[in-house]
């Protein structure tokens, strides 16, 4: 994400509402502590730093997920970043059961360009974005196709977490034996041949018979 926001890392900001004290530690977690003398007063995690909320190609907030379990799911919190004179946690609400909303004020987001996603990307990913813009302009992809490419760019940059299926797909790609070019195929074939030679030597050293065929 935006490098200038990293100076918030390692700091925590609290907000007290009624009998609850909320604590937001950017890039770490959000916690809630019930300040009563009840024997079972709640104290726990409302979310751990997970990914960015990106809206209109701008960092709109931070998602803290995988907090303490709550009925059938985990508690999660969305932290909205808004311009303010000082760094402070300004508001906390629970729009739906176990999903919390925090408003964090900071002067670090007051500049109109301070939360743009594009400048935080590598040159390669910026090029990929530029190409997608051009394709959209030339009407070679739909708006939906453009958004899909952007999502892939954000995932590749580590701003968004890829879904589990995507991760599996990625792993499968790594072990796939399909090659984009003949050159890559030849290189891989050479490496495998070398490996087989070494393994044959090892097998013969240990007196293990090896049956190969000419079309291996």
Q: Which terms would index this structure?
A:
216 residues; extended; eight-stranded mixed β-sheet; alpha+beta
What does this structure look like?
30% of the residues lie in helices and 31% in strands. 13% of the residues are buried. It contains four helices and ten strands; from the N terminus they run ββββββββββαααα. Helix 1 (123-137) packs antiparallel against helix 2 (143-156). A hairpin with a 2-residue loop joins strand 4 and strand 5. By secondary structure, it is an alpha+beta fold. The strands form two sheets. An eight-stranded mixed beta sheet has the order 1-2-3-4-5-8-10-9, with no helix packed on it. A two-stranded antiparallel ribbon has the order 6-7.
Classification by helices and strands:
alpha+beta
- Describe the strand arrangement of the main beta sheet, using strand numbers: 1-2-3-4-5-8-10-9
N- and C-termini, Cα separation: 49 Å
Give the averaged pLDDT, no decimals. Answer: 86
Stretches with pLDDT under 50, minimum 5 residues: none
Describe the biggest sheet?
Answer: 8 strands, mixed
As an assembly, this protein is single chain
Approximate shape: extended
Our Rg estimate from Cα atoms comes to 25 Å
User: Hey, roughly how much beta strand do the residues contain?
Assistant: 25-35%
Total DSSP E strands? 10
Helix and strand succession? Answer: EEEEEEEEEEHHHH
SS element count, helices: 4
Q: How much helical structure, as a percent, in the residues?
A: 25-40%
Pfam families: PRKCSH
Domain DMAP1-binding: 117-216
Subunit structure: Homodimer; disulfide-linked. Hexamer of two alpha (GNPTAB), two beta (GNPTAB) and two gamma (GNPTG) subunits; disulfide-linked. The alpha and/or the beta subunits of the enzyme constitute the catalytic subunits.
Organism: Menura novaehollandiae
């Amino acid at each position: 994400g935006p490098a200038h926001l990293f100076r918030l890392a390692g700091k925590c900001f609290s907000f007290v509402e009624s009998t609850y004290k909320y604590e937001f530690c950017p890039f770490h977690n959000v916690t809630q502590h019930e300040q009563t003398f009840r024997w079972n007063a709640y104290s726990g995690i409302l979310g751990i730093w997970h990914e960015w909320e990106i809206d209109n190609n701008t960092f709109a907030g931070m998602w803290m997920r995988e907090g303490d379990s709550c009925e059938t799911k985990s508690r999660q919190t969305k932290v909205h970043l808004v311009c303010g004179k000082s760094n402070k946690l300004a508001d906390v609400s629970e729009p739906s059961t176990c999903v919390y909303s925090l408003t964090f004020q900071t002067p670090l987001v007051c500049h109109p360009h301070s939360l743009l996603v594009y400048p935080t990307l590598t040159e390669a990913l910026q090029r990929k974005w530029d190409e997608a813009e051009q394709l959209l302009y030339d009407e070679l992809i739909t708006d939906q196709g453009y958004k899909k490419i952007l999502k892939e760019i954000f995932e590749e940059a580590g701003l968004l977490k890829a879904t589990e299926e995507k991760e599996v797909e990625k792993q499968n790609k790594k072990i796939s034996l399909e090659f984009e070019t003949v050159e890559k195929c030849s290189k891989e074939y050479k490496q495998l041949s070398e490996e087989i030679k070494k393994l044959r030597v090892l097998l013969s050293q240990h007196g293990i018979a090896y049956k190969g065929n000419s079309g291996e």
